[in-house]
Specification:
The protein is α+β, with helices and mostly antiparallel strands. Helix content is 33%, strand content 17%.
Length: 1066
C-alpha cells in the first residue's frame, strides 16, 4: 500500500452519503468532512465534522459503504482496527490474527463483510473474510461502540493458503463475489457461497495491485503493476472459451491478449525524466479509481503526480459476430491530463498525492475529482468537456475572410431545424447553465429543473433569434477607414448602460487613471459587438482591416490608422520620435548605440539581453561615467538644452531622458500658440490648462501664469488659478503648504488637478503619482525634480506596474527593449492585439531583444494573415520586418524555410537546385538553364512521375564492385539544370509519345512555334495518376483529343476516360 505524504483522501463509497475523509499519515489523524456548497475548479466548500486521532501506523484502509461511520485500518502486524470516525470518540475494535504478518489489503462489501488480505506464510490462509454487519445497527446518538458488542474472534471464511494477497475488492452488484490480487500469480475471483474454498476463475498476470471495479459496469475491473506504468482491464465474464465470441478468441489467440483481459495499456503514464522526482519506496501507480456515473471512465495517479483520465468504450463488433454473455474488448476513446502542470519540477509541493472521484448528484454534471496536493490543500479538478467540442465539429466552418471580402456574415454559418438544434446544441447550453452552482449542502440547486429551464430558454432563443441582424448605422457604413468605423460605432452605442464598475469609478474621489480610461475604451468597444452580427464582424477583423490600410512600419501612417485609440496613437508617435532621433546616428556615441531605448533603460544603463549588439566591435561595456561621457556627445548632437532641474550627478542622463519624454509630442505647436494673447480658434479650458501645466513642468512658472491669463477672457475661472499660481514663489520662501482636499479638485481635467495640487502642496511627488496624467508627463516631472536615488526607485516601481497591468504607455520608460516584452505580453493577454505587439517588437527583435515571446507573437500574427488568405500582406510584413532587423547591413531574422522541396524517389534524397548549387563547385555549371525548360515545375513533376516508375528512364551510372564512380560531365550539366537528381543522377522520365526526356530541349523545337499556347504547353510534363506514364502537355492534348487509352502499346489504361461526358470538363 502506498503511503504518500501528506496523506490520503477518499470520497464516500455510499452514493447517497455525501462526505469524504482525509487521512493524515504523519500525525495519524482521520478527519471526516462534508461538502457544503460549490465543488468546482477554484472553489470547494466543505466543513469538518469529526476526527479520529488514535490508531497505529496503517498499511491499508477502506471505508464501509453500508456503515459510513466505520473505517477499517490495516497495520504491519496484521491487526485490523475498526474505527468509529463520526463522533470524535476515538473508539475502535480489533480483529486479531493467530499469526502476525503485514496486512496488505482490506475491503468492505455492501452487505457488511470485510475482506482482509495478508502477507504470505506457509501454514496459514492469507485471505480472511469477517462478518461485521452487526455494527450497522449501532445507535448513532451514542458515542463509540456499544459495550455489548461481542468481539470478532473468528472469520467466516479463510481463503488462499500460503500466498501473498496484495489487493482485494468486492463487486457491488453481487456482494458475495470478490476479486483478489495474488502477488506473482495473478487475479482470482471467489464466490463466498461456494464452500469449496477454491477460486471460481483465475487470470494469470503480474498486474495484481490497485484493484478497481467499474461501478457503472461491474463486468469490468482494472489492476496495475508495481514497477512500471502497466494497466490491465479485465472482463469477469471470461469463464469458458465456449461462451466467448469469435472476435474475442481471435484477440486472445492472435494478439497475445491474456485470457480474461479486455484492454492492456503499457504506456498510459509518463516515466519520470528527472531522477530526483522518483520515489522508489512507492509503486509507479499509486491509485486507480473508476467513476461511479460514467461507465469506463478510469482515473490513474502516478508517483510523479500525473493524474490521467482514460475514457474507454467497447470495441465495435459486427452484429453477426456478437454473442450473449461473451467477454468484450475495450478501447481508449480519449485520454485527458487532469493536472498538466505536473511536469514542472518547481511545483513539487503542488503535485497531486491522492485523489478520488466526487459522487455527483446528477449524471448531467461534469465529472470531477477531489485531489490532495503535497502542500495539504484540497482542490477539485474537472474533466475537460466533450460537450463543448462536438458541436463545432458538425458545423461547416466558413473562414472569416470570406465574410469580410464578400460582404456576407460568417456567424451562424448553418441553420439547423429546431429539433436538430436542441439535440446538438442543447447539451452545450445545459453545461453552461450548470457551470457554476451549489451542488451540496442546504443551498444546493435542483439540477433537473435547471436543465429543463435551460433547454426551454434555448428553445425560445432559437425561435426569437439570440442576436439581432440589424443593419449598420449610416455613419459606420459611410466611414472609409477602420478608425472612422470604430469612432462611429462608439458614438452610436455610447448610450449603453453603465456597469457597476463604471458607476463606482464615477463616484470615486479621484478621476480614472490613463490606464483605466484606455481599458474602458477597449472593453466598451468589445461590448458593442453583442448588438449585431455585422458589428461583431467589424470588431473581429480589426487587425485585418488595419493590415489592409498598410498598418506596418510607416509610423506617421500608423498614427492615422489607429486614430480611434489616443493611447495607441501616442505610442506610435513616440516610436516616430525615436526613429527621427536615431537617424544618421543621432543616438550613437562610441561605443554605444541607444536606438529605441527608453527613460528607464537609459537611466539604469541597461543594454538588454544582447548588450554586444549595441556596442562597437570589440568594445567593452562602459561604466556609468563612461555612459555619462557618451550621453554628453549624444545630447550635443541632438541639440538638447542643458539640464536645469534638481541637483544630480548625472545631468546628461537626465537631459536625454527629458528629451525622450517629449519625442514627437503632438501638442508642441499648440503650446506656442497658447502663449499668444490672440487665438484664432475658441479653445476648451482643458487645452489651456494642459499648455500651462507643461510650462509649469518645465519650470517656466511665468509662462504658465501668462497662458492662464490669456485664457481668462474665454474662461474666467482660470484667472483665479493664475493668481494662485503666482503664490508658489512666495510660499517657497515661507515653506508653508495649503490644505488641499482631493474631493473638491477637478475630476474631469487632470492638468487642472495637477496645477491645483502643486499650488496647495508644493510637492512634485503629488504630480508624479497622479495617474490620471499621461505617463510621459509624470516621467518628465520625476526626471526633473527627483533625486538620483528617488528617481531610480520610482522608475522601477512604474516599470513593474506597467508590466503587471499591460499599460502600453510604458514604452516611454522601457523603449523597445526587453522590459517592453513583459508589458506587451500582458497587453495581448487582455486585448488580443497581437498585431501591434508584433509590429512594435519587430523594430528591435531579434536585433537587440532575445525573448522567445517575440517569436511567438510574430508566428501568431503571420498565421493570422495566412488564415485570412492575406498572402500579400504577410509577404509584405516578412520583407519589411526582415529589412528592419538588419544589423551592420545583415538581417538578423532567419529567412523562412522554403515551402517546396524536390524528392527523388529512386534514392529518396530531398534537395533543391539552389541547395545543390551552393554545395557544389560553381565551375561545374558552365551554362544557364536550357531554353524551354522550367526546372521548378519540372522538378515538381519529377517528384511525382519518377516516384511512380515512369517509362524508359536513362539508367544511372553503372559502377563495378570496388571501382570508383566516374563523373559524367553531361550528367552534371543535367543536374545543374534540375533535370537529374544530384544524388543518384537519374533524370526525369521520357515522354511516351516522342520518347524524349521531359525537361530537355526537344528536337521539334516547339519554342519557335508561332502559337503562344504551344510554346507554353511544351515546357510542362503531365502524367496519368493511374498508369503513371508521362507525356509533354502539348503531346497529351494532341493524343487524347482522339483517344482515351494510354499511348503505350502494352498499357490498357483509359487515361482520358470521362465518367460523365455530358459535363463540361476544364
Amino acid at each position: 500500500m502506498d503511503r504518500p505524504e501528506p496523506g490520503l483522501v477518499k470520497w464516500s463509497p455510499n452514493a447517497s452519503h455525501h462526505s469524504f475523509i482525509h487521512i493524515n499519515l504523519q500525525h495519524r489523524v482521520v478527519q471526516l468532512y462534508e461538502p457544503t456548497g460549490h465543488a468546482q475548479r477554484g472553489r470547494f466548500d466543505a466543513k469538518k465534522l469529526a476526527k479520529h486521532d488514535d490508531f497505529p501506523p496503517l498499511t491499508t484502509y477502506d471505508w464501509s459503504p453500508s456503515n459510513p461511520s466505520l473505517l477499517a485500518v490495516g497495520t504491519t502486524n496484521g491487526i485490523v482496527n475498526l474505527l468509529r470516525i463520526d463522533d470524535n470518540s476515538n473508539a475502535y475494535l480489533e480483529l486479531g490474527l493467530k499469526m502476525l504478518r503485514t496486512c496488505q489489503a482490506v475491503a468492505f462489501s455492501t452487505e457488511g463483510k470485510l475482506a482482509v488480505g495478508l502477507d504470505r506464510v506457509r501454514s496459514d490462509n492469507c485471505l480472511y473474510i469477517w462478518d461485521v454487519n452487526r455494527l450497522s445497527s449501532m445507535d448513532s446518538s451514542v458515542k463509540g461502540f456499544p459495550t455489548s458488542t461481542a468481539p470478532f474472534n473468528e472469520p467466516t471464511n479463510r481463503l488462499e493458503p500460503s500466498v501473498s494477497v496484495s489487493s482485494v475488492r468486492f463487486f457491488e452488484d453481487n456482494p458475495n463475489v470478490l476479486v483478489a490480487g495474488i502477488k506473482g500469480q495473478g487475479l482470482r475471483i471467489h464466490d463466498l457461497r461456494d464452500h469449496g474454498h477454491g477460486p471460481s476463475f483465475h487470470f494469470q498476470t503480474k498486474c495484481c495491485n490497485n484493484l478497481a471495479i467499474d461501478y457503472a459496469d461491474q463486468n469490468y475491473f482494472a489492476s496495475s503493476a508495481l514497477d512500471q506504468p502497466a494497466i490491465r482491464i479485465w472482463d469477469r465474464r471470461a469463464t469458458q472459451r465456449d461462451l466467448a465470441s469469435t472476435s474475442y478468441l481471435n484477440a486472445v489467440d492472435q494478439e497475445e491478449l491474456t485470457w480474461g483481459g479486455a484492454l492492456k495499456l503499457h504506456g498510459a503514464l509518463e516515466t519520470e525524466l528527472d531522477p530526483t522526482m522518483v520515489d522508489t519506496k512507492n509503486s509507479f501507480i499509486r491509485q486507480m479509481r473508476f467513476n461511479r456515473s460514467h461507465p469506463g471512465m478510469l482515473a490513474v495517479l502516478s508517483r510523479a503526480g500525473q493524474l490521467k483520465i482514460l475514457s474507454t468504450k467497447r470495441e465495435y463488433t459486427e452484429p453477426e459476430l456478437q454473442l450473449d454473455g461473451s467477454p468484450e474488448l475495450l478501447e481508449v476513446r480519449r485520454g485527458y491530463e487532469a493536472d498538466p502542470r505536473f511536469v514542472d519540477s518547481m511545483r513539487r509541493n503542488d503535485k497531486v498525492v491522492s485523489f478520488d472521484w466526487v459522487t455527483m448528484p446528477s449524471a448531467a454534471l461534469k465529472p470531477r475529482l477531489l485531489v490532495l496536493r503535497a502542500n495539504g490543500a484540497f482542490e477539485v479538478l474537472e474533466k475537460p468537456s466533450f460537450t463543448s467540442e462536438y458541436p463545432f465539429k458538425l458545423i461547416p466552418w466558413q473562414s472569416p475572410y470570406r465574410g469580410l471580402e464578400e460582404g456576407s456574415g460568417y456567424h451562424e454559418p448553418i441553420e439547423l431545424e429546431l429539433s436538430q438544434s436542441v439535440s446538438l446544441l442543447g447539451p452545450l447550453r445545459t453545461e453552461e447553465a450548470l457551470s457554476d452552482l451549489s451542488l451540496f449542502g442546504p443551498g444546493k440547486l435542483d439540477v433537473a429543473s435547471l436543465v429543463e429551464n435551460s433547454l426551454d430558454m434555448f428553445h425560445m432563443m432559437h425561435l426569437n433569434g439570440s442576436m439581432q441582424d440589424e443593419s449598420l448605422p449610416k455613419t459606420v457604413s459611410e466611414a472609409k477607414s477602420v478608425a472612422e468605423k470604430l469612432i462611429a460605432l462608439r458614438r452610436h452605442y455610447e448610450t449603453l448602460p453603465s456597469t457597476d464598475q463604471e458607476l463606482a469609478t464615477l463616484q470615486a474621489e479621484e478621476p480614472p487613471s490613463q490606464r483605466e480610461s484606455h481599458e474602458k475604451l477597449l472593453s466598451n468597444t468589445f461590448q458593442i459587438g453583442s448588438s449585431s452580427n455585422k458589428v461583431q464582424g467589424i470588431l473581429d477583423h480589426i487587425m485585418l482591416l488595419r493590415a489592409k490600410e498598410r498598418y506596418l512600419f510607416d509610423y506617421t501612417l500608423n498614427q492615422e490608422i489607429v486614430a480611434d485609440d489616443p493611447w495607441l496613437r501616442d505610442v506610435w508617435a513616440w516610436v516616430a520620435g525615436a526613429e527621427e532621433a536615431a537617424m544618421e546616428g543621432g543616438v550613437m556615441s562610441h561605443p554605444l548605440d541607444l536606438s529605441y531605448m527608453g527613460v528607464y533603460t537609459v537611466w539604469t544603463n541597461n543594454l538588454g539581453s544582447k548588450p554586444l549588439q549595441r556596442l562597437s566591435d570589440g568594445s567593452a561595456i562602459p561604466d556609468r561615467n563612461g555612459w555619462e561621457h557618451c550621453l554628453a556627445g549624444i545630447c550635443k548632437k541632438l541639440g538638447i538644452p542643458k539640464f536645469d532641474g534638481v541637483e544630480t550627478k548625472w545631468p546628461h542622463h537626465r537631459q536625454l531622458c527629458l528629451d525622450m519624454c517629449n519625442w514627437a509630442r503632438s501638442e508642441s505647436h499648440e503650446f506656442e500658440e497658447s502663449r499668444s494673447s490672440v487665438s484664432s480658434l475658441k479653445r476648451d479650458s482643458s487645452w489651456y490648462t494642459r499648455s500651462a501645466a507643461h510650462a509649469l513642468f518645465k519650470g517656466e512658472t511665468g509662462e504658465a501664469v501668462q497662458i492662464l491669463k490669456n485664457a481668462s477672457t474665454e474662461h474666467p475661472g482660470l484667472l483665479f488659478v493664475s493668481l494662485a499660481l503666482q503664490l508658489i514663489g512666495r510660499r517657497d520662501e515661507s515653506k508653508e503648504s495649503l490644505d488641499f482636499d482631493v474631493r473638491v479638485a477637478s475630476k474631469t481635467d487632470p492638468y487642472l488637478r495637477a496645477i491645483s495640487s502643486l499650488i496647495a502642496t508644493g510637492d512634485w511627488a503629488t504630480i508624479t503619482n497622479q495617474r490620471s496624467l499621461p505617463l510621459r508627463d509624470r516621467v518628465f516631472v520625476a526626471v526633473r525634480t527627483f533625486t538620483d536615488d528617488a528617481l531610480t526607485v520610482w522608475l522601477e516601481e512604474e516599470v513593474t506596474a506597467a508590466a503587471k497591468t499591460g499599460d502600453i504607455e510604458g514604452i516611454v520608460l522601457t523603449g523597445i527593449t526587453d522590459p517592453l516584452v513583459d508589458i506587451l505580453a500582458r497587453y495581448v493577454q487582455k486585448f488580443n492585439d497581437v498585431q501591434t505587439a508584433t509590429l512594435l517588437l519587430s523594430i528591435c527583435a531579434p536585433r537587440f531583444i532575445d525573448d522567445f515571446r517575440t517569436t511567438a507573437f510574430r508566428s501568431a500574427y503571420r498565421a493570422y494573415l495566412q488564415r485570412h488568405h492575406a498572402f500579400f500582406l504577410r509577404a509584405k510584413f516578412d520583407v519589411e520586418s526582415t529589412r528592419r532587423s538588419k544589423h551592420h547591413g545583415r538581417p538578423t531574422l532567419r529567412p523562412p524555410a522554403r515551402q517546396i522541396a524536390l524528392r527523388c524517389v529512386y534514392c529518396d534524397a530531398e534537395t533543391s537546385l539552389q541547395q545543390y548549387q551552393t554545395s557544389s563547385n560553381p565551375a561545374s555549371f558552365p551554362f544557364p538553364a536550357i531554353a524551354g525548360s522550367n526546372p521548378s515545375s519540372i522538378g515538381t513533376a519529377s517528384g511525382s512521375s519518377a516516384a511512380n516508375g515512369a517509362t524508359s528512364p536513362l539508367p544511372g551510372p553503372v559502377v563495378g564492385r570496388g571501382a570508383e564512380p566516374q563523373s559524367n560531365p553531361f550528367t552534371e550539366k543535367m543536374v545543374g539544370t534540375g533535370v537529374s537528381c544530384p544524388n543518384c543522377k537519374r533524370h526525369l522520365p521520357r515522354c511516351v509519345v516522342c520518347l524524349e526526356v521531359v525537361g530537355m530541349p526537344r528536337s521539334d523545337k516547339p519554342e519557335h512555334s508561332s502559337d503562344a499556347e504551344v510554346r507554353l504547353a511544351a515546357r510542362f510534363p503531365t502524367f496519368c495518376l493511374k498508369c503513371e506514364h508521362v507525356l509533354h502537355l502539348d503531346h497529351a492534348r494532341q493524343w487524347f483529343a482522339r483517344h482515351q487509352e494510354c499511348p503505350v502499346p502494352e498499357c490498357r489504361c483509359r487515361c482520358n476516360f470521362r465518367a460523365n461526358p455530358e459535363l463540361n470538363y476544364h
